Amino acid sequence: MKRRAILLVIGVFGLLLTLPLWASPYTVSLATLFLFFAYAGQAWNIMMGFAGLLSLGHALYLGVGAYTVAALYDHFSIGPWLGLWVALALCGLLAAAMAALAFRYRVAGVYFALLTIACAEFARIGFDHFTWVGGSGGLFLKVVEPGRMDLLNLRGPPAMFYYLILLLAGAALLLSALLLRSRAGYYWQAIRESEEAAAALGVNSFRWKMLAVMISGAMTALAGMFSAFYYSNLFPEQLFHISRSIEIILGPIIGGVGTLFGPIIGAALLTALGDGATEFVAAVGWDVPGVKQLVYGIVLFAIVAFLPEGIWPALARKLKLFQ
Amino acid sequence: MACARTQAEAVPMSASLAVQQISKSFRGLQALADVSFEIQPSTITALIGPNGAGKTTLFNIIAGAQTPDRGAIVLDGCRIDGLRPDQICRLGIARTFQMVKPFAGLTVLDNVVIGALSCCTRVKEARQRANAILDMVGLGPKRSRASALLALPDRKLLELARALATRPKLLLLDEVLGGLRPSECDRMMALLRDITEREGISLVLIEHVMRAVMALARTVIVLHHGEVIAQGTPASIVREQAVLDCYLGEPLRV
Amino acid sequence: MPFDFSTLLNVLISGLMTGLVYGLMALGLSVIFGVARVVNFAHGEMMALAMYAAALLFSRFRVNPLLAVVPLGAAFFCFGYGLQRLVLRPFVIRPQHSQFLLLLALAVVITSTLLMVFGPDARAVNLDGLLEPVVIGELLLDQAKLYAAVVACAVAAALFAFFRLTYTGTAIRACADNWLGAQIVGLDVDRLYAIAFGIGASCVGVAGCMMILLVDVTPGSGPAYTLLAFVIVIVGGLGSMSGALVGGVLIGISEAFGGLFIAPSAKSMISFALMIIVLIFRPRGLIAEKS
Question: Using a CB-CB distance cutoff of 8 angstroms, which residues of chain A are in contact with residue B89?
Answer without folding.
Answer: 199-202
